[in-house]
Predict the structure.
Amino acid sequence: MPSQLESTDDTASLPPAVTSETASVGVAESGERVVITSDVVDALLDDNTSVAVAKAAEIQNVVTPKVEVVDVDNAQKLQTPITFSFAREELNALPANHYTLQIAAMTELKDVQLFLNQHTFDKPVRVYPTLRGDEKWYIVTYDVYPSIQTARDAAEALPEDIQSLGPWPKSLSQVQREITRWKE
């Protein structure tokens, strides 16, 4: 009987490793860092530049000549407004034994919006927040499939730019557990 038992290596079906490396903004080569208060960041995200303009002088005073200062008027033009909303309730309402494709995971809302702006999708894309350790993550999922095999087949049919990101099937039961981790 032991000769009939064989094992197979299924490590290729595991999701890619999570990395917490991020790019830094406001870090000079000397290691100095510019700190912008959360009320300014929140105001910019809410498209309320009056707070940022009011604090511009304060920000300018803490910036050394080694660090490039972003002009507030230009920052307003470059800002990407957040236009998507989270799909927690929708994802929780889907059958837990179905699958979706995870196509991206990001730690910044603006990065999620830029990702959504750069790609066109013909099926529903749903975004939900979760916590991994103590870090906030925003997960981008694509469509819903009744089995893992149909999800894998769908991943292979995605446009090449999305395939290059390594989308992988994720059970909705896992998605629903991750949604419950979010405490906000």
